[in-house]
Amino acid sequence: MPAFTYSLPLRWSDQDSYGHINNSCFLTYLEEARTRMVQELLPTEEAERRRHAFVVKQSVIEYNRPLDYREQPVHVDVWVVTCRGAKLELGYAIRDGEHTYAEATTKMAAYNLETGALRRISEAESEFFARYTAV
Questions:
Q1: CATH number of residue 57's parent domain
Q2: Most buried of 11, 31, 127, 134 (most Cβ within 10 A)?
Q3: How many CB atoms lie within 10 A of CB 49?
Q4: In total, how many domains does the chain have?
């Protein structure tokens, strides 16, 4: 499966009193990897970015094992599950060479922030996301 992989450093402040990464941080990790993946797709002008936004509708995370704080980064894989109409669904794995700590999905909608309405995913966006879609 073609995935975008982001090497994410853990932050000392992300750990809880048990020394594990707090589960609330995992959503931030997904967001950070997703944002890094789509950076080249984003328009440079702010007004254009607002017209070609994506908003999160649902995130689901399955925690497989505790992730202890450490100096070494983890890898966040991101891939496209569905991309059609106004719907974009991404899959994720937070892992290292030995373990997968969490798996997740995020359902998103293509959205125009200026009009407050759904929009269709553009041809350029579809072509971009096709790079990370399993055939």
A1: 3.10.129.10
A2: 31
A3: 12
A4: 1
Helix (H, G, I), strand (E, B) or coil at 96: coil
DSSP secondary structure code for residue 41 in this structure: G
Say what the pTM is: 0.93
Task: Judge whether 56 and 92 are in contact, CB under 8 Å.
Answer: no
Q: Tally the residues of the chain.
A: 135
Q: What is the pLDDT of residue 93?
A: 98
Is residue 90 included in any domain, yes or no? yes
The model's pLDDT over 13-66, given as tens digits with 9 standing for 90+, comes to: 999 999 899 999 999 999 999 999 999 888 889 999 999 999 999 999 999 999
Name the token pair of 2.
């073609």
Whether pLDDT at 135 is above 80: no
- CA-to-CA dists, residue 125 to 43, 53, 81, angstroms: 11, 11, 14
* Dihedrals phi, psi of 124, to nearest 5 degrees: -65, -40
Residue 37 lies in a domain: yes
